[in-house]
Amino acid sequence: MDAVVFPGQGSQKPGMGAPWVGTQSWDAVSLVSEVVGREVGALLVDADAATLQATRNAQVAAFALGLVILDACRAAGLTWSATAGHSLGEYTALVAAGAVGAEDAAHLVGQRAEAMQAATEAVPGTMAAVLGLDAEAVQASCDAASGQAWIANDNAPGQIVVAGTHDGVAAAAAAAKDRGAKVMPLAVGGAFHTPLMASAQARVDAALDAAPFAARSLPVVANVDAQAHAVGPDWRALLSAQLCHPVRWREGVVALQAMGVTRVVELGPGGVLSAMVKRIAPEVERLSIATPEEAAASLQP
Questions:
Q1: What would the CATH number be for the domain defined by 126-185?
Q2: 297 — pLDDT class (breaks 50, 70, 90)
Q3: pLDDT (tens digit, 9 = 90+) per residue, 238-252?
Q4: Distance between CA 87 and CA 243 in Å, rounded?
Q5: pLDDT value at residue 301
Q6: Nearest one of 151, 141, 63 to 103, comparing CA atoms
Q7: Which CATH code fits 2-122+195-296?
Q8: In whole numbers, what is the pLDDT of the chain averaged over residues?
Q9: Which of 11, 25, 33, 87 is catalytic?
Q10: 53 — pLDDT class (breaks 50, 70, 90)
Q11: Where in the chain is the domain with CATH 3.30.70.250?
Q12: Residue 265 is inside which H or E element, if any?
C-alpha cells in the first residue's frame, strides 16, 4: 500500500522547478500563478535563496512544485491509498487525496502565505532543529526561554524543531546544547506552528470557511492530531489548528504504517521526509521524486 507525502516550507531551493519547464505538468504553475496573482514560475526557476526564504514566496513556490510533480506521477500511472504532508505540504496532500481541488487549494495557500508573511513581520521569529534529544528534554529547553520558544515540529526520533522569537530560540538552543544536543538554524522566515502566528488566524480561517471541501476523500493523516481523516469538511478545523500548533510528523508516519502503508513516496525536492521516515519506520520502503525522470521511473521495479 502506497502513500504519497509532500514536504513543506524549508524544502525549497533555487532552481528547483527548472527540470520541469516545458513539460505538460508545468501547466500547474500557470494555474497557481493565475490564482495568487503572481508569476510563480520565476520563483521556481530564477529566484535566489534569500528570495525563496520569504514566507510569501516559499509557500506558493513549494505548493506549485508539489502540484507539478503530483500531475506527472498521476500521468505515469502512480496510484496511492493515503496521503500526508508536512506543514504547508498538507495542502498538496489534500489535493492528492481529492479532498479539495487544485485551484481552491492554491487560493488557500495564497491567503495563508500572505497572512503568515504579515505575522512574521509583526513579530519576527525563527526556527531551529534540535538533534539528539527526546521531546521531554526539548520541552525543558524551551521552558528555559521563558515562554518565547515552543516545540513546533516533532519530526523523527532525536529530531525536533523549536520556534519562537530570535532571543527565545537562542535561549532554548543554548539550554539544549547544555543537554548534549546539536542545534541547526533553519532557513525559514518565521516562528511557524507557534502562538506567534496568531495574527494570521483570522485571514486563514476566512479562506478556509469559504473553501469547498469534498464530502469524502482518500485518508489524509493530519499534522495536528496524527490521525487519518477522510471527511473533507473536517479539514477546516484541522488546517486552522495547524497554524499555531505543532506538526506531529513522527506520530503521523506511525499512523500511516498502522493503516497498512508499506511504501512512502515523497513528491518534492530534497528527500527530507524520506529521511525522516527511515528514522521513524525503517522497514517502510521509501521513494523520492523530484524530477521528470524520477516521475517517469516511479512504476519501475
A1: 3.30.70.250
A2: confident
A3: 999 999 999 999 999
A4: 9
A5: 53
A6: 63
A7: 3.40.366.10
A8: 94
A9: 87
A10: confident
A11: 126-185
A12: strand 263-267
